[in-house]
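I hope you will forgive my troubling you with a question about protein structure. The record follows directly beneath this note:
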Amino acid sequence: MAGVRARSNGALEALVMRALWQADQALGARAILTTFEDPIPAYTTILTVLSRLEEKGMVEREALSPRKVRFRPRISSAEAHARDMVESLEEAEDRRGALLAFADTLSSEDMELMRGAIAARRVRGGSS
């Protein structure tokens, strides 16, 4: 149905980024479209999403000619998810409470990983 949005912009961005992360080379909008299941967004919608992702610094444009453009991710999936977590934390009314609630959900393996990351950051002198 024309004019009805089947996915949110954030969901489209996530699907486009997933396609780029899974690719072993830069992709054009048409190649990205082939990774979608129904409902398949319009070609122009994918171009708009790619433009927004470029503005956010998440993808870079590779112009092969004026009409042939490909895109590749500028950040990894892990970096993107870390950005999302930091953004959520910054939006929390109770930052301390949010951190404590998050820590309460971590597995033993995750806690060991975090301890190691915190120790490494301290050695590097990171503190902010």
In short: The chain has two domains: 9-73, 77-124. Residues 108-124 form the longest helix (17 residues). The chain has a mean pLDDT of 91.
